Amino acid sequence: MSGQPQTSVTLRRDLMDLMDEISFEELGLAGEKILPTLKVRQPSGSYPVLPREAKMKVPDTSRGPHGTFARGQWDWSSQSYITTEYGYEETVDNTQTLENEEWIDEEEISAELTVTGLLLARESRVAGSLFNETAFAGTSITNPSATIFDSATNCKVKLKTGMDVSASATVFDVFDLIWSEILRKKCGLAKNQFSLICSDDLVKYMLRTKEVQDSVIYVEPVARMTAERKREFLTDYLGIKEIVTVSSIYDTSGLSQSAEIGKFWSNKYALLAKLSSGKPSFKEGCLGRQPSWSKYANNYIIEDYPDPARNGIVYRAREYRGATLNTDYGVLIKNMKASVDSKTGI
What we know:
By secondary structure, the chain is of the alpha+beta class. It is about 25% helix and about 25% strand.
């Protein structure tokens, strides 16, 4: 198979099939929902982009002389993508495998650990590329509301009041102004086409604000709502398509140190964006995708190779993927939480 320079390396399709049966739901990953995987035939290349202006012009469709009609006069633009190889390994001691075979399947556990490491690293890259002020720097625009935002560009806004300040947070106006004054002017889409990407903590803070509590007091007490119902209510209240909660966590401490839990997706940020519907094409206008080289059948491969020096076997998961981003379809919101730990993001 392509990408295997070592003759002693064995592709483990059986372990790949086994991992397909594991959902990894406990990891709370959201990167695939936000930037879905798109198979590409080459590890790097260019792809066509439909200019947003091509969809917003109103042509004169009346019949002209000699049966002619108005024609579009725009050309496809192009952008490039690149995929990079990533991998993670676990070493299994052959003697330990024999000692533990009565209780555990070292091979299966090692394969699961390699895939877990790969998926967590992937989530970290996606979160880092999206909750990223440099990526969403944008160009200067008129601040939609000086009472709500400290500053604004066409890709990023900074709130004056965090959503955890329950008495004064203006939940509806924040998202309505971002859509009406920024996003609609960039991509021309209706408000109900946009998804809000934010932590489960921020959903909780928004539901606790006086504004939202007052709106629901005669309908259904928030305290009695299920987590899903809370998201549904807040989605309807804001008039958007959905709320994608990001709750994945990781251990920020080093090896042999006590665990210190941090968030991939910081409470400091949220993102209002048009996400891909999952169409297998770069031509769809959306926030972005993760190109994945199609030589890797399951988006990743699992393989093993011997480690004679340690009398062991190394299990390895590898992938070739990247990320594309189109900020015409999103606005990053800063200061969603008034005070955030710089290390943990909480």
